[in-house]
Design a protein that fits this description.
Elements lengths: L1 E11 L4 E10 L2 E5 L4 H4 L3 E4 L4 E4 L1 E6 L12 H11 L1 E6 L10 H11 L5 E4 L1 E2 L12 H7 L4 E2 L8 H11 L6 E3 L11 E2 L2 H6 L3 E2 L1 H18 L3 E3 L5 H12 L4 E5 L1 H5 L21 H13 L4 E2 L8 H4 L16 H10 L6 H15 L15 E11 L18 E11 L2 E4 L2 E4 L1
Parallel strand pairs: 1-4, 1-5, 6-7, 7-8, 9-10, 11-14, 12-13, 14-15, 15-16
Antiparallel strand pairs: 1-2, 2-3, 5-17, 17-18, 18-19, 19-20
Helix pairs in contact: 3-4, 5-7, 7-8, 8-10
């Protein structure tokens, strides 16, 4: 099939590309960029995309697919469908599955489930066996099977001794260690600790629980020379610690989830469990620090921490409900609304943080928009106004605090692996 994309603005800061052009895609590859002849247009499907932008396929490096173990909440396929609907052609999935992704067998199982899908799925292996922090997981086996990073996500790597071993082992593969930064001895609450938690009568989690672990991990990365990536950063002090680490030349990177640059702890005043997450929503000062960290490059990328949960689990008393919200299908809208249109980030910076930097952190090749290259593209309209409707989500779960929220910016289509997702449907190209 021959597909023509007309009227696009092509944008890829990694190629210093920002120009308006038509694209001809044939057999899954970019055949031609530029003005097309009548012959080239003949018998081709033409998509009129005036005013839309075309970037390298967006990549979310922190999602939960729940399979194996909780297929009632999400599967590799439904999560990948949600990713495509949200504008992503690649994702990295966390290891807190059941059984844990701590072996080559589980890594291969996930890869096999994702086979032939438009969205590329890259498993992240557990750093310790069953994420218990007692013994090192078989990192070499998992890496050879396709794991791109290692993490005990959901908890921090338990001891400094084990963290050192994991980091030293990772050096052989130049694989990043992704850390959920939280000192468990301080983290037995249900929201950010402060005046609001006192007012609501809910046990709090202090920001120092995050800050202490971020500090430990950066110091250990400096000592070992390994790469550490701070997942879903949320506290002002943690951002400052990453900023200082980068200035010293330590190999530290960080991501922020959209809910941590859009929502504050004030959202919890209605005890809506869809606002319950870990790390918890922080203060307005922390939200401003996330935005500043994105602006000055301290925070390298945006990742959703897409965490599906069943309706039954979320419809519980606040302290018993699980942490986490969906993120794949609202991420572009929130980023455009809160960062692009409020002039915190340029379009180039947004593409860097959602397409380029995540892949560089995980040692995955960044797609090029060039003739002869495989078409791995996200087409989006930063100015499309739309209303979030969780009933239309491709995800199996519906736990989003953004239902009925008006957003500006939306994915139009994605192309990858000789497939197109457009207007709610997948098809071969």
């Amino acid at each position: 099939m021959r597909l023509v994309l007309k009227g696009l603005t092509l944008i890829n800061p990694d190629q210093k590309l920002n120009s308006k052009s038509d694209l001809l895609i044939e057999d899954g590859k970019i055949k031609k960029i530029g003005d097309l002849t009548k012959e080239e247009l003949k018998d081709a499907e033409i998509l009129e995309l005036e005013g839309k932008y075309c970037a390298p396929g967006f990549f979310d490096m922190h999602i939960h697919l729940r399979e194996p173990g909780r297929e009632d909440e999400e599967t590799v396929v439904t999560g990948s469908n949600a990713a495509a609907a949200g504008g992503f052609t690649g994702v990295a999935c966390m290891p807190n599955t059941d059984p844990t992704t701590d072996s080559a067998e589980v890594v291969r199982f996930i890869k096999e489930k994702a086979k032939n899908h438009l969205v590329d799925v890259f498993p992240i292996g557990a750093a310790s066996v069953d994420r218990k922090g007692e013994s090192l997981a078989p990192i070499a086996e998992m890496f050879d099977a396709g794991a791109v990073a290692f993490s005990d996500d959901g908890v921090a790597i338990k001891t400094a001794s084990l963290l050192r071993s994991v980091m030293e082992y990772s050096l052989m593969y130049d694989a990043p260690i992704i850390e959920h930064c939280e000192d468990e001895s301080l983290a037995d609450g249900h929201m950010n600790e402060g005046e609001t938690s006192t007012f609501l009568g809910l046990p709090g989690i202090p920001t120092v629980a995050e800050d202490l672990t971020v500090m430990r991990d950066i110091i250990m990365a400096e000592y070992t020379g390994a790469r550490v990536h701070i997942a879903h950063i949320s506290s002002k002090n943690a951002v400052d610690l990453v900023r200082q680490g980068k200035k010293k030349g330590i190999k530290v990177t960080a991501e922020v989830a959209p809910h941590h640059f859009t929502l504050s702890e004030e959202s919890l005043k209605g005890y809506n469990t869809n606002f319950k997450m870990n790390p918890p929503l922080r203060t307005r000062d922390d939200v401003e620090a996330m935005i500043e960290g994105l602006k000055d490059g301290t925070i390298d990328c945006i990742a959703s921490d897409h965490a599906p949960h069943s309706i039954e689990e979320k419809e519980m008393e606040f302290i018993y409900a699980p942490n986490g919200i969906l993120g794949l299908e609202t991420q572009i809208g929130l980023a455009c609304t809160e960062l692009l249109h409020k002039k915190h980030l340029t379009l180039d910076q947004l593409v860097e943080k959602m397409a380029v930097n995540p892949r560089k952190i995980l040692n995955i090749e960044v797609p090029k928009i060039a003739e002869g290259e495989n078409a791995n593209l996200t087409i989006f309209d930063p100015n499309e106004i739309w209303t979030v409707d969780i009933s239309k989500f491709k995800s199996k779960s519906k736990n989003s605090p953004f239902d009925k929220k008006l957003l500006t910016g939306k994915s139009v289509a994605v192309i990858n692996n000789s497939q197109l997702y457009f207007e709610g449907n997948f098809r071969k190209i």
